[in-house]
Target: CocE/NonD family hydrolase
Amino acid sequence: MSDQYQITETEHLWIPLPDGRRLAARMWLPEGTGPFPAILEYLPYRKRDGTAPRDGTTHPVFAAQGYACVRVDIAGSGDSDGRFDDEYSEQELSDGEAVLDWIASQHWSSGKVGMIGISWGGFNGLQMAYRRPEALKAVVSVASTVDRYADDIHYMGGCLLSDNTNWASQMFAYMTRPLDPVLRPDWCSEWLGRIEDLPFMAADWLRHPTRDGFWKHGSICEDWSAITAPVLAITGWADAYVNAPPAIAAKMTGAPAKALMGPWEHRYAHISQIEAADFHGEVLRWFDQYLKGEEAGADSLPDYRVFMQEFTPPSPKNVPQNGRWVAEEVWPSPSVSEVVWPLAEEGFAPDPQAGTARVKSPATVGQAGGYFCPGIRIDNERPDGQTVDDAASTCFDSTPLLAPMELLGRPRVRLSFSVDRPVAQVVARLCDVAPSGQSQRITYRPRNLCHDDSHEVATRLEPGKRYEVEFELNECAHRLLAGHQLRLALSTSYWPIVWPAPEAAEITLHLEGCALVLPERRVDTEIAPQAPAPARDYPTYQAEVLEAPWGEAETRVEADGTQVLESFDSYGAARNASHGQLVGSNVRMRYAIHPDDPATAQFDCNWVFEFARDDWAVRIETDSRMTCDRETFYLWRGIKAYEGEELVLTREWQEEIPRGCH
Model:
């Protein structure tokens, strides 16, 4: 698709809100006779510097095809007025509705607006559509969720994720960054006021350990019929947010919905380090259809387009994956049926078997799991070979497959069990084991055994009592080759992705009630997958690079047996070519745990940001920590903020949160 329009870029403009506050925005407008449909991206990540490199690769391409593109910072972020209160808050969403109204009322606007975003912007695009603002006519949501409790960085399967604190520490650092003095003469008072008023999000989120109204707010699965704007949902298998696209394709009833799942990490597909693809073309086809009203082919896409992975030697690096593109015309698909594999002492059996199996793991199981959401660090994020974790888990292996087997969907694990502690969790992993013995993780998911199926009720377990549970693993698409084995690995820990239970529990499986339920895909004739095209050329960010990004990670065992994972990522330093601001940042993280005592779990994080222009310079150092004992979580954070060499603010916060059934 060739460029059609020249573009006028406005580096900064104010969008007024009904109560007098203003939100800072950046805009790309096609030149020529309008009006034009618009594309909104709405984030707290700072359009002036934070997402400027990525924004420069997307919105100019869309604007050249006849879209007015607007990138807006939410209240209390970047140079916008107000105070940040929480992710996806009522303030954020009601302000977003006002922004949509403003865009629709501009002389250059056709009145039809689409929203696009990855992660935060993917979340609030769906959440805004759930509210049905008149101007919002289509959404492209990347790496998002339909259930804020079940599938975000806070909890998974009712288990606390360590990213609850990791992400809170990152947002703490992000939201302490200064306003730009060029745009905000009041920058210093506003900057220091923002820091003083920042919510302690790690503690706030921990106060909601079950799926209550706090998490139901912003979860579109509460009413699938509420969304009437067409939704294209995209992510990649290396991302953390794999469950939303197929759920949207299957359950949205009020408008067209399609899912696209590639091999990508937590990035827009055109800038993926794993395998770049034509993200722009996918977006433009969707918006051409539903914002311009052109026959672009979006409505005839298969419901579910999928990169079907095959065994690839595991590596923490973001390397290309083996596989091929497939598609399902409708989802759920008649090509996928459930196959039940009963667990047995020797692996799997044709029928339920008597007997028991023991699951008790050292707290260090999970060391080969990689980072929760690859695409956030520089690299070295992916799951490595699973052999070390498999050896410390209870494994059930199939015999070598006589023919290939394809899995598409969410496998389920059915367990009949008793346990010796009142609080316990189980983690299930599916692995593809090659004839060489290499083990590649296909999918996984933890389950808090104290929770009911709704995750709204948590009850301490009675040791020795027999219970039953059945739970889904995360979405997968994987083709096991002939000669390979399918492995179900069960453990009672998965550190550092999952925060461990307070005590080392032992689970006894009663095998006659245990099974693995697989979504097996069998297709006689494949339909055309309509795979994304290779990435097209796109503009890049104009900046003077002063330090290139780099990162490293190391795992070591200390003298007392404590296992420590340390990582350092420098995001480099660069000077913006258009407004001259220099920005540099780095982050250091440390996870530590003793294999014999899950209550020794500890997370530490240090962020450093530096900003400069001419004789103005700011440096921010933030530190966050989480520790625990068997009854309590202990949270601490601190900040030091400098203007030039002067320390202008230092403060510490701390909270203690009862663990309950975590």
Remarks:
- The mean pLDDT is 97.
- DSSP finds ten helices and 33 strands in the chain.
- Residues 138 and 290 are 6 Å apart (CA to CA).
- The domain at 336-521 is CATH 2.60.120.260 (Jelly Rolls).
